[in-house]
Structures are given as structure tokens and as C-alpha cells.
Specification:
741 residues, mainly beta, six-stranded antiparallel sheet, five-stranded antiparallel sheet, 4 helices, 48 strands, 4% helix, elongated
Length: 741
């Protein structure tokens, strides 16, 4: 495919937000049956009191003790990656990265709380971090253990083996959930005896003092259900797995399990799914107390670098479960949603992808071909919103750089087709790899995403845990909260497998429904879990700050430079008649008053009446600008700084006499340049636009129209920065400066 056709396809899929119109067929469950009445397991507190509590790791899990032995090697089925196939073409950038390279960023707040030693015991490779948050407790989980904390992440127990809850060998891949509507905790893991999974449901909302209904040893999935992922829906707990059998989706009867009764299960195929060899679809997991009553939805990405996939897209299946008459249950054929092209393949589909800095070590697993834990759904008054992500390769050359392709899908609150509300590709500053993302959406519609980074390109940095996010009303497709650090590793990974984390987990506090909790893996110096909490929503009523210095910018500068900034109301109360200031190189503040009203979480541009003298050629100036709100509750985000350099472009001209050049910014980087003169200009008259490097980016001949030479030009696709506009002939002309942003 040639470059022109490639761009045409990019433009097409960027604006497609509909589900393909196609007839769907319904397929009945392939299997169904019963779990017997569960085993009752005493509470953790009771086990501690009577001496039966099993600390992790006890050696009773059927696993060798030692420093981070590998547990449960990843199961790869037949590799379906086709070298050279798919878009973007090799050497071409991810189109969504290019679209947001100059986006506005808001400062992220430090995490509310961080616990760097979540699992105070030996760990395995990888740790499979998971987390569940209830009204008063947090459970942090890892491959074969867990620990209970209060909401400030102070531990209430030592690390516990999963044998505290389940009997027999425990082999890992746990997922912990809090069912907000039912006010219960859920603990799960997979099983190889028989092949299947185990589920424990707390008898009440306190995971420390309440007992557990434990279902295990009764559900056989046939093949081993690697990488199980669990989701909450109104009519069941849904399970997907990287499994080598026809049945790939399983549902267990939530209502009966919450009561500790015998419960049914049903098993389904995922008709039409294509995989790369390792795969992980997920069911949208509902959060909150008002669960949708619509059918559940399964989501998986389809990469055109895989055999059998013509174009990048999402596949969605709808599942209807009838527990009274299981034969009436069914799963739809796959519905396709077109997306902007992505490249989700690293190293031909292998598990060794991302280099490490400072002496290196094994290449780390980027976790490709996986909808990352957890695809989460929130019901709003008029629509349902689902968020999820997966890793993509974003660099055009050199060592692999990973980014995170993320989505928000919406459907009518009463059900119906899903559409793409927004999609984006997030990259970490300094060309670090961003991967292993985990997303959630709060009650206000703000999105938070915690993730892992590693840097070996522009920035050298060990594995780090970060977060970003966006506010509900921000421009679509952009993570607007600046990358904020949660934890930084002190050492590299050393296990020769290159295994890292396998997944992480971000959830919402069910009390305020605005605080994000996360569990992820880092190295300090050994492999361990870090638990944290952060928030995107406002913390204060009165909180203002300058978030961007728009002008001036590096380029040719003069003695009367306009200073324009973006002011943001970070708080929950409107603000009026407040002071804004700037200074140059730490000099005296120039203070003026913003006389309008700025509503909560809104931005406004403010141009000072005073100008700045930046006329010394080749001088670099530091501009500081901030707000001075009386009673500001968070001064940390009031001020920002920016360095600009006076760099002349050296366009030598003899000025036109008796002439005037005006360049009008018509908005959205559309400009109109008009040269007005009462003299005849010899020879051809033309317009040229130069970038900061002196390169011509626009050239056009102009005609005299009653003493005016006018030209309209579009700079919306140009990079942000300073440009010079010149109109004249070969010897004489007038020059004006414009700024594209």
C-alpha cells in the first residue's frame, strides 16, 4: 500500500465511531451444570486467633521457596503473526501519537498514599498484582498470596497464602474484586486439578472478620485456563481465559454464590475470534451500586498483523444468560468496530521485547495481544461507559518503544450498539515505554490510568509506576494529566524469562467513587508489589493556577513581546477578579487582574497588557507566570515556568515603502495575510512562510487587487512554533511573525 492510500485509510478510520452494520447470529452455551454447595471457610481474623492462619509463603502451596522462581509459564498457542503484514507500515508512526504530540498537560498531584512493601514475603516471577477496595478495607493480592490493609494502606495482617482461603495446591493468577452492589469481596485463582478455577465470596463486607463461601474443584474447563480474568455483571461473574479449547467464556451464577448456595455455570465459545497465539479478551466489569441490566459484553482487539484479520478493529460479543432455562442462553456472533490503525506486535509475537537501562538484563515482556486488566464499565444516567487498553508499538526505528492504546466506548443506558466515544495512544515523555496499563472511570466521568514505564531511548530509567488521566470535559482522545510518579525501581529485573507483572489492577474507592487504587510490580531491589491511591477529581473548593505559557515562544523576539497564558480553575467553586502575574528571569512581578469568571475545571486564555523585553539576540529567558488567588488551598499548582530563546531567522530584506502587512489569525490556525500598498511593485509578488529553521513551508504567487495582495493559508497541520510570513518581490518585502499552537 502506498503512503497516500495509508493516510487516506487513517483519516477514514479516525472518524469512524459506529458498530459495523451486520446481522448477528446467536449461539447457545456449549456446556452448563452446577457447583455444589460451597465449603465454609472461617474468617481471616478467626484463623489468626486460633493459629490456623497460613502465612505466605508457607511451602504448603506446592511451590518451591526461593528468590522469585517463575510460576506458571505463559501458554502460547500456534503463533499467528504474519511478518510485514498490517498497518501502520514499518517505519510509520502511530497516527494517534502524532495527533496529540503538543497537547496541554495539567500537573498531576502526588499520590494520596503509597505502600512500597505490599507483599512482605518472598514473591514469584511475575507477581500478578491485583487489588480490591471496599468501604473500610483494601485487599492486595499477588501470585499465590494476599494481604489486608486499611484504606490508608496500613497492613492489618501479615501476608497470607491463598491456602488461607483455598485448599490444596494454589498456583496463582489471582483476581480480586469488590462487588459494590452486593457489598462483598471476591477472591479467585485458576486451577490445574482439575483444569478450572476457584472462587471465594466473602459472607459480608469485612474481609478480615467475615467468613468465606468457597467454590473449588467442581468446575472443569477442559484445557488449562491460563490468564483467567473475572468480571462483575448483574446476572453472573464472567470469566475469560487464554485457553486452548473451544469454550473461552464462562459464567457462574452470582445471585446463588452471594447466598452460599449451589450455583450454576455456563460455558460459551467466542465465535469468530482471531488471536496471535496468546490472547486475553475481557468482559466489561460493572462498578457501582446501579448495575446495568443489559446483556454483558465481551471485548477483544483484532490486529491486522495477525493472519485472518484484514483491518485493525475491535470485536464485541453480547451474552444473554438465562439461569432458569440454560438452553435459552446465548452469545452473539462478533460485531466489528473499526478503529484507527495500530501495531500491537513486538518481536514477532515473542515475550521478550523491552530493553532495560543501566547494564540491562533480559528483555521484558510488553504484554502484547492482551486487553489489560481490567475492562471496566460505569452506568451513567443516560449512557453506559466502558474503558480499556492494550499495548502498541509506537516507535519508527531503534529499540522497541511501547505505548498504550486506550478507549472509551459508550452505549445507550438501555442497551444497544457500542460506539467509540474516544480513542487515544498514550506515550510516556522522554520516549520511555508505557505499558501494563490499568484504567477506571470515576463517578464524574474522569478517567485514571496507572501503568508501568521503562526508559532506554531519550530518558534512561528503570521500571517505574506512573499514573495519568483526563477530566470528563477535556478534548477527546487526550490524557491531559501530566505523568506522575508512584514508585521507581532501584534495580533491574534479572529473571532470564523476562517476565514482568503479567497485569496490574486499578479500581475505584466505592465510598467516594473518585479515588483510584492501584497494585503494580516494581523492583526494590527484588520483585515486589507497590500499592497506591491517587485522584483526578478536584480536592479543593478554591484552587487556581497557570497551566500554560502560550506566548512568547522560541524564535525571533523583540522588545515588546506579548505574554499570553492559560489559567485553570482546579477547584469546585467559580472564581472572579483574581490576580495573574508574570516575571522575566526572576525579576519583579507584572501583576494584572482577570476580570471575568472562571468556572470549575475550566480554562481561559489571559493576555497581559504589559509586554516583555526579550530583544537580546541568542539570549535565553526564563518566564514565570502564576495566579495569586487569596485563599488558594493548593499553592503547589499556582505557577509554571518556560524558557524561550531569541533566535533570529536571518531573512534579509529591503523593506517595502508605503506598504503595510497585516496577518490575521482567524482561529484554528487559519490565517489571512494582506499586503496593502499605494505603489506598483516590480516583478512577481509572492508570499513565503518560513519555519524556525528558515525552511519554506508555503509559497504562492499573488495578484494585485486594488492595491491589496491577499492570501489565506491553513497551518492546522503544521508543528507548533514560530513562523515568519513574507510578502514582496525578490528584492523587497515585509515580514510578520505568527505563532501556531
Amino acid at each position: 500500500m502506498n503512503f497516500k492510500n495509508y493516510l487516506g485509510l487513517m483519516l477514514f478510520v479516525c472518524f469512524v465511531g459506529f458498530v459495523s452494520a451486520q446481522d448477528t447470529e446467536t449461539f447457545p452455551p456449549e456446556d452448563y451444570g452446577f457447583f455444589a454447595t460451597p465449603t465454609i471457610v472461617p474468617s481471616v481474623a478467626e484463623q489468626i486467633a486460633n493459629g490456623t492462619f497460613i502465612e505466605g509463603l508457607s511451602g504448603r502451596e506446592g511451590r518451591p521457596l526461593g528468590e522469585s522462581p517463575e510460576i506458571n509459564p505463559r501458554h502460547k498457542h500456534v503463533n499467528n503473526v504474519v511478518p510485514g503484514k498490517g498497518l501502520p507500515l514499518e517505519g510509520m508512526p502511530d497516527p494517534l501519537v502524532r495527533a496529540v504530540e503538543n497537547q496541554l498537560k495539567y500537573p498531576g498531584r502526588d499520590p494520596i498514599v503509597v505502600n512500597l512493601n505490599g507483599n512482605n514475603s518472598a514473591s514469584f516471577t511475575p507477581t500478578d498484582p491485583t487489588i480490591a477496595v471496599g468501604p473500610n478495607h483494601v485487599i492486595g493480592g499477588w501470585n499465590i498470596g494476599f494481604r489486608i490493609f486499611d484504606k490508608d494502606l496500613n497492613p492489618l495482617t501479615n501476608s497470607a497464602s491463598l491456602n488461607t482461603i483455598f485448599s490444596g495446591n494454589v498456583i496463582g493468577d489471582p483476581i480480586f474484586l469488590y462487588d459494590h452492589e452486593a457489598d462483598r469481596f471476591i477472591i479467585t485463582e485458576f486451577s490445574n486439578n482439575p483444569n478450572g478455577f476457584k472462587v471465594a465470596v466473602s459472607q459480608g463486607p469485612n474481609p478480615l472478620t467475615d467468613g468465606w463461601f468457597v467454590y473449588q474443584g467442581q468446575f472443569n474447563t477442559g484445557a488449562f485456563p491460563d490468564y483467567t480474568k473475572f468480571s462483575i455483571w448483574h446476572d453472573g461473574y464472567y470469566v475469560t481465559a487464554n485457553i486452548g479449547s473451544a469454550n473461552r467464556l464462562f459464567v457462574v451464577e452470582r445471585e446463588k454464590m452471594l447466598l452460599g448456595q449451589a450455583a450454576q455455570f455456563q460455558a460459551f465459545q467466542l465465535p469468530g475470534i482471531v488471536t496471535s497465539g496468546f490472547y486475553s479478551p475481557q468482559v466489561f466489569s460493572a462498578m457501582g451500586t446501579d448495575l446495568p441490566t443489559t446483556p454483558a459484553t465481551v471485548i477483544y482487539q483484532q490486529d491486522d498483523s495477525w493472519g485472518g484479520v484484514a483491518n485493525d478493529h475491535l470485536k464485541l460479543w453480547t451474552v444473554t444468560v438465562d439461569w432458569a432455562t440454560p438452553g435459552n442462553s446465548g452469545i452473539s456472533s462478533a460485531v466489528q468496530v473499526p478503529v484507527t490503525a495500530f501495531n500491537g506486535v513486538f518481536n514477532g509475537g515473542s515475550f521478550n521485547n523491552l530493553p532495560q537501562p543501566f547494564g540491562g538484563g533480559p528483555l521484558l515482556d510488553a504484554l502484547q495481544a492482551t486487553v489489560m486488566n481490567q475492562a471496566q464499565l460505569r452506568k451513567f444516567p443516560t449512557y453506559n461507559s466502558a474503558v480499556f487498553n492494550f499495548v502498541v508499538r509506537v516507535n519508527t526505528s531503534g529499540a522497541n518503544q511501547a505505548g498504550i492504546r486506550w478507549y472509551e466506548l459508550r452505549q445507550d443506558v438501555g442497551g444497544g450498539p457500542w460506539t467509540i466515544h474516544q480513542e487515544g495512544t498514550y506515550t510516556s515523555p522522554g520516549e520511555k515505554s508505557a505499558f501494563n496499563g490499568s484504567m477506571a472511570i470515576d463517578i464524574d466521568g474522569n478517567i485514571g490510568m496507572a501503568y508501568s514505564t521503562i526508559g532506554t531511548r531519550d530518558v534512561q530509567e528503570r521500571i517505574s509506576i506512573k499514573y495519568t488521566g483526563r477530566f470528563a470535559d477535556d478534548p477527546l482522545g487526550e490524557m491531559t494529566v501530566a505523568e506522575t510518579q508512584i514508585a521507581l525501581s532501584s534495580a533491574n529485573a534479572t529473571h532470564p524469562s523476562g517476565r514482568y507483572a503479567d497485569y496490574s489492577h486499578t479500581v475505584i474507592d466505592p465510598v467516594d467513587e473518585k479515588t483510584f487504587y492501584n497494585n503494580n510490580e516494581f523492583f526494590d531491589p527484588s520483585r515486589r508489589n507497590v500499592l497506591s491511591a491517587f485522584r483526578i477529581a478536584p480536592n479543593f473548593e478554591n484552587d487556581l493556577g497557570v497551566v500554560q505559557i502560550i506566548t512568547p515562544v522560541t524564535g525571533p523576539l523583540g522588545s515588546e513581546e506579548e505574554v499570553t497564558v492559560t489559567v485553570r480553575n482546579f477547584g469546585t467553586e467559580p472564581q472572579s477578579n483574581f490576580n495573574v502575574y508574570f516575571n522575566i528571569d526572576g525579576g519583579t512581578n507584572v501583576t494584572e487582574t482577570f476580570t471575568g469568571t472562571l468556572d470549575p475545571l475550566q480554562n481561559a486564555e489571559f493576555t497581559f497588557n504589559a509586554t516583555a523585553d526579550l530583544s537580546t539576540v541568542n539570549e535565553t529567558y526564563t518566564i514565570a507566570s502564576g495566579t495569586a488567588l487569596v485563599g488558594d488551598e493548593d499553592p503547589s499548582n499556582d505557577e509554571i515556568t518556560k524558557d524561550v530563546t531569541n533566535e533570529p531567522l536571518n531573512i534579509n530584506d529591503i523593506p517595502l515603502q508605503n506598504a503595510d502587512l497585516i496577518v490575521l489569525n482567524k482561529g484554528n490556525n487559519q490565517f489571512e495575510a494582506t499586503l496593502t500598498t499605494n505603489q506598483n511593485i516590480d516583478g512577481r509578488v509572492f508570499i513565503k512562510v518560513y519555519n524556525i529553521n528558515g525552511q519554506e513551508v508555503i509559497y504562492n504567487l499573488l495578484e494585485n487587487n486594488n492595491g491589496k495582495y491577499t492570501y489565506n493559508f491553513d497551518m492546522s497541520y503544521a508543528s507548533s512554533g514560530v513562523y515568519l510570513v513574507r510578502i514582496g518581490n525578490d528584492k523587497q518585502g515585509l515580514v510578520k511573525r505568527i505563532i501556531v499552537r
